[in-house]
Amino acid sequence: AATAALFGCATDGLGFLVPADPVFAPVDTTQRGVFAAGLCLGPKPLDATVAEARAAAMRVSLALTGAIAP
């Protein structure tokens, strides 16, 4: 919760980060330019964590190259 507060991201009742849109932007947080993956979004299996990490890395790459707004 302290890290979420540091970056201004919303959390749920259990302290996990809240995605901007669970279906269409599952690794984007409520704070523009901050991306999340894995257990900070809630409990999940390892394969789901790896998939989210790859998606977050792609979103960061797109933001850094200017393909999307950060």
What do these coordinates show?
This protein has helices at 2-7, 46-65, and strands spanning 19-21, 25-29. The chain has 70 residues and is α+β, with helices and mostly antiparallel strands. It has a two-stranded antiparallel ribbon with strand order 1-2. β1 (19-21) and β2 (25-29) form a beta hairpin. The chain is built from two helices and two strands; from the N terminus they run αββα. The model has no long low-confidence stretch (mean pLDDT 94).
Properties at a glance:
70 residues; alpha+beta; two-stranded antiparallel ribbon; 2 helices; 11% strand
Q: Structural class, please?
A: alpha+beta
What is the CA-based Rg, rounded? Answer: 12 Å
Q: How far is the N terminus from the C terminus? A: 23 Å
* Helix-strand topology string: HEEH
Largest sheet: 2 strands, antiparallel
Shape: globular
Given as residue ranges, the uncertain stretches (5+ residues, pLDDT < 50) are: none
The beta-strand count equals 2
Mean pLDDT: 94
Instruction: Give the helix tally.
Output: 2
- Strand portion: 5-15%
Helix residue percentage: 25-40%
For the largest beta sheet, what order do the strands appear in spatially? Answer: 1-2
